[in-house]
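dumping this here before i forget
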Amino acid sequence: MMEKVVIQCAASKNPDAGFWKHEGKNVKFVAQPNQCSRSNAFLYYRPDDSIPGANKTWRQKLEEYNQEYKQTGGNSFNLCEACKLYKNPVYSELVERLQKENVFILSAGWGLIKSDFLLPYYDITFSSSADVCKRRKQSDKYHDFNQLADEKLEENDSIYFFGGLNYLPLYHRLTKDLLCKKVIYHYHSAEIPPEEGYEYIPYIKIRRNWHYSCAEDFMKGRLQK
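structure:
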């Protein structure tokens, strides 16, 4: 029996996180490039935009980059493993406690990814309070990665999700076809639109960044499963 956990991404990134580079400039991946202020330091793109002069998207290039990294160890852009990209230590703690193959991250920019998948710096969120250039709309078209689907989970396996209401539509879409037990922890006052095939368990300890505390309590065996 396998147990996997999924936690939503975070806005605060590791200051050492590497940027993708193009024509001598750092590429910053955002939700609405046309809404970003012009910069001499950055080029702004969405993950599924085409690379200028290449017959592929940035997402496709990132997948190739990760495949090459697995084969050769080369990481010329100093990209971070997903579990190390975000400042909050809970991502690394989950990997230490549960092993990297059991931890996944739901990224507003990239989709459902493995904890050791290399990512560049990006600034995309579902948060309605974020700057418009960073804010991904639920209706925006993304070819999100779904690396959890490759795990071939069975009915006696389980997935546990820690994340906010804004991230649930994407999570539901990417996991709806999985036949295993699917538990979603949520802040107790949130109005959850229930979906068939999921169990919803409220978490009432704190409000601000509650999903970090929830993940920590999960690791310590304090939560209902």
